[in-house]
Amino acid sequence: MQQYSQLKAMLAITKASLKSIFRSPSAVIFSFVFPFVFILVFGFIGNNGGAPVYKIALDKNCDSTNALYDSIKTSNRIKIVRFENEKELRENLVKGKITGVFNIKRNSAKVPEYTYSISTTSASNDKWPQFMPVVANIVNKISNEKYVSRPTYAIPDPVHAINVEEIREYKTIDFILPGQLGFSLLSSGVFGVAFMFFNLRNTVVLKRFFATPISKTYIILGEGLARVLFQMLTAIVIIVAGKFIFGFTLINGIVTLLQMLVLSFLGLIVFMGLGFIVSGLATSDSSIPPFANLLTLPQFLLGGTFFSVEAFPKWLQPISKALPLTHLNTAMRAVAFEGQSLWDVKNEIGILLIWGVVVYAVAVKVFKWE
């Protein structure tokens, strides 16, 4: 008599579950459609709304005892960013995270009293031409207040250091796409798993599985593998479409793609654990969305999905930085645009693993088969 194969039974469950996922409109919409809609809305329409805020660093020799410096410091259009060392400053400069290094020098002549300049990189070529008129408006306001005859208070230095290092341009899509991929993984992991196992219990499918020789472990592995395969395919589609349609940066090509898939897999496993928790706590179909939203909505809003965590109030940032989605998004952006390796983002991976241990410890306690 041929021995019963747990592996073949698991693969049969995986195949059947994968077919049902592809036939589910909600699964396709949450995994494929919503991320692309948000990429378009937040990535392109969002570019036109609101006045931009320019981040600058100050040159170490910048004169800070003048009205121009005081006005820039209090401007709502310019934010002065300080760095711990020159290496950190240079990294932010060449990656286009700041507009440039701003300097103010006192002139030997009384009028104009000061000269100002900005050192930029090729990453900020699209920023400093818009930034300089902002400074010019500040200078004009100061000049009007200080001088009746209207001589200017300060003039720009026509020679500025540009192309400090040739680097890539940081585009909106480079921030938006990893966040939307994380959005897709989180919604699929939590809602998909929660509804799937609750329905399997509710429709007595699990009881029918128990009538066969397959073990409970292989049932979970089969259903989980189907969800992982579907979501990895989703991740590939989102990343590749982002690359060739929207110009998403994959700094090391296929290597970066594979690294993002590894991170996606890790994030999905953690989020599926949250889905198991919701499935165990839910007592009916209608009780799943409240539980699921309680776990997903804070991460959608605070996990760096739509806006940078730095944009939140300082009291809220520690909460944001504690969420697993925040670390997944941070790691994927670092790998995709900055070219960091998986080892370079080991802190984010470590926090995700800690979340995984905690989540599955809770899931084991609350998950119900019947």
List the helices and strands and how they pair.
Elements: H1 6-22, H2 25-43, E1 54-58, H3 67-74, E2 78-80, H4 86-94, E3 100-106, E4 114-119, H5 128-146, E5 154-156, H6 172-202, H7 205-210, H8 216-245, H9 254-281, H10 288-302, H11 317-322, H12 324-336, H13 346-366
Parallel strand pairs: 1-2, 1-3, 4-5
Antiparallel strand pairs: 3-4
Describe the structure.
With 370 residues, the chain is α/β, with parallel strands linked by helices. It folds into two domains: 6-44 and 171-366, no CATH class; 51-156, D-Maltodextrin-Binding Protein, domain 2, CATH 3.40.190. It has 13 helices and five strands. It has helices at 6-22, 25-43, 67-74, 86-94, 128-146, 172-202, 205-210, 216-245, 254-281, 288-302, 317-322, 324-336, 346-366, and strands spanning 54-58, 78-80, 100-106, 114-119, 154-156. Strand 1 (54-58), helix 3 (67-74) and strand 2 (78-80) form a beta-alpha-beta unit. Helix 2 runs antiparallel to helix 6 (172-202) and helix 6 (172-202) packs across helix 12 (324-336). The longest helix has 31 residues, at 172-202. It is elongated and about 95 Å long. The model is unreliable at 45-50 and 160-168 (pLDDT under 50).
Q: Main attributes?
A:
6% strand, 370 residues, elongated, D-Maltodextrin-Binding Protein, domain 2, 2 domains, five-stranded mixed β-sheet, alpha/beta, 60% helix, single chain, 5 strands
Relative strand content = 5-15%
Number of domains: 2
- Unreliable stretches (pLDDT < 50, length at least 5) are 45-50, 160-168
Work out the radius of gyration: 26 Å
Indicate the percent of residues in helices.
55-70%
Q: Could you spell the SSE succession in H and E letters?
A: HHEHEHEEHEHHHHHHHH
The structural class is alpha/beta
* SS summary, helix count: 13
- DSSP E strands, number: 5
Mean pLDDT: 80
Specify the overall morphology: elongated
Describe the sheet with the most strands.
Answer: 5 strands, mixed
Query: For the largest beta sheet, what order do the strands appear in spatially?
Result: 2-1-3-4-5
- Report how far apart the termini are: 32 Å
